[in-house]
Design brief:
Layout (H helix, E strand, L loop, with lengths): L8 H13 L3 E2 L2 H10 L7 E2 L2 E3 L3 H14 L3 E5 L1 H5 L8 H9 L2 E5 L15 H22 L5 E3 L7 H9 L3 E3 L27 H8 L2 E2 L11 E3 L9 E5 L8 H4 L1 E4 L2 E3 L2 E4 L2 E5 L7 E10 L6 E11 L8
Parallel strand pairs: 1-2, 3-4, 4-5, 6-7, 8-16, 9-16
Antiparallel strand pairs: 10-14, 11-12, 11-15, 13-14, 15-16
C-alpha cells in the first residue's frame, strides 16, 4: 500500500475517534446518495468513508477498527488483482467478509488503467473503457452478489464524454477532487476529501469535515482533460456559475489556489467567477481549489476541480 495514498492504522484510529467524539454520523454511501438525490435531509454532520483499491491492509488494519466503531464503509475494487490472488490485495473471501459487516464493494475498473490517457476519444476508445468497467461490474456481481452501479475513476481521471456515457448506463461516479456532496453536485463526478498520504493529518481533515459543498453548477464545468498534443492551452480556465449567490458572502472573500499558490478569481458577472493558472500547468493531475467562509460560521464552502494535462505521451508506470 503506497504511503502517498494510505495512512497508518494509528492515524486511521485517530480519525475514527475524532468522528465519534465530535458527533459525526458515519452513514452508508447508498443511504447518503439516495437522500441527497431525493432532497431528503441527512443527519447533522453526516459523512461517508470510502477506500480506493482492494489493498489487503484495509482488511488487516482498517476493517477491525471499522467493526469496532460500527461504521459502514465502501471499498472501490479493481478486480484483476483480486482474480490474480495478488498478495497485497484482498481475496474474494475477505471482500465477502467485509460485505457481511457494513462494507459495500463497488467498481474501480478491472485493471486500474488510465481511462482517458489515450490517443483518441473515438468510438473504439469509449467501447473499450465501458467494456473494462462492465467487466469489473460482472466480476463483482459474480463473486459478491448484487453491487451498486458506482464507479470510482482510477486516479480520479475522466472526461465529459465518459461521464455522459456512464450517466446513460445508470452509473454514479466518483472523482478524487475535494469537496462534499449536495443535490447540486455532478453525480458522475462526485468529489471526496482525501484523508490519507499527505492529507492524513487530523488538523487539515477537521477543516474539510466541517466544510460545505460550494453551491455551483458543476455539470457545466469544462472538459477536465487538456490535450497539449492538440494545441490546447495548459492554462485551463475554470468557469463557475453560482447557484445561490444571495446566500454567499463569497464575492470579497473567495480564495482560489492552484498547486498551492493563491490566484485571484475574476467576476465577469455577479453569478459567475473564473480562475485561470498564470503559468502552464505541469503534465499530469492538477487541482484548482476555491474556498469561501460561510457567513456567520467558522466553516468554508469548498470547491475543487481536477485537470489532467496530457501531452499524448505514453502513461508513466503506476
Ligand atoms: Zn485507485
Amino acid at each position: 500500500m503506497p504511503r502517498s495514498t494510505s495512512l497508518s492504522a494509528q492515524e486511521f484510529k485517530e480519525h475514527l475517534e475524532y468522528l465519534k467524539q465530535n458527533n459525526y454520523t458515519v452513514i452508508d454511501l447508498a443511504q447518503a446518495l439516495d437522500s441527497v438525490q431525493q432532497g431528503v435531509s441527512l443527519p447533522d454532520k453526516a459523512i461517508v468513508i470510502t477506500f480506493d483499491d482492494a489493498w489487503r491492509d484495509i482488511y488487516i488494519q482498517g476493517f477491525p477498527l471499522l467493526k469496532q466503531y460500527n461504521y459502514p464503509f465502501t471499498v472501490f475494487v479493481n478486480t484483476d488483482p483480486v482474480d490474480q490472488n495478488q498478495r497485497h490485495t484482498m481475496t474474494w473471501d475477505m471482500l465477502r467478509e467485509l460485505k457481511q459487516h457494513g462494507g459495500t464493494l463497488a467498481n474501480h475498473t478491472r485493471d486500474h488503467d488510465y481511462l482517458v490517457r489515450k490517443p483518441n476519444y473515438d468510438k473504439a476508445w469509449l467501447t473499450a473503457a465501458l467494456a473494462n468497467i462492465d467487466y469489473a461490474q460482472q466480476r463483482l456481481t459474480a463473486e459478491l452478489g448484487p453491487v451498486p452501479k458506482w464507479l470510482a475513476y482510477p486516479f480520479g481521471e475522466y472526461n465529459n464524454r465518459l461521464k455522459l456515457a456512464l450517466k446513460d448506463k445508470g452509473y454514479i461516479a466518483f472523482g478524487q477532487q475535494s469537496g462534499g456532496v449536495a443535490q447540486f453536485s455532478d453525480f458522475q463526478a462526485l468529489p471526496r476529501f482525501p484523508a490519507a498520504g499527505a492529507y492524513s493529518q487530523l488538523k487539515s481533515l477537521k477543516t474539510k469535515l466541517a466544510s460545505q459543498p460550494f453551491p455551483a453548477n458543476y455539470t457545466a464545468f469544462k472538459n477536465p482533460v487538456i490535450r497539449l498534443d492538440r494545441a490546447e492551452r495548459g492554462q485551463p480556465l475554470l468557469e463557475v456559475e453560482l447557484t445561490q449567490a444571495q446566500k454567499l458572502g463569497v464575492r470579497q472573500q473567495l480564495s482560489c489556489f492552484i498547486t498551492g499558490d493563491r490566484h485571484a478569481p475574476r467576476w465577469p458577472t455577479k453569478m459567475k467567477f473564473t480562475v485561470q493558472a498564470e503559468k502552464v500547468l505541469s503534465n499530469g493531475r492538477n487541482r484548482y481549489n476555491c474556498t469561501a467562509p460561510i457567513w456567520g460560521q467558522k466553516n468554508y464552502y469548498w470547491l475543487s476541480h481536477q485537470w489532467l494535462i496530457y501531452g499524448g505521451e505514453a502513461p508513466p508506470k503506476q
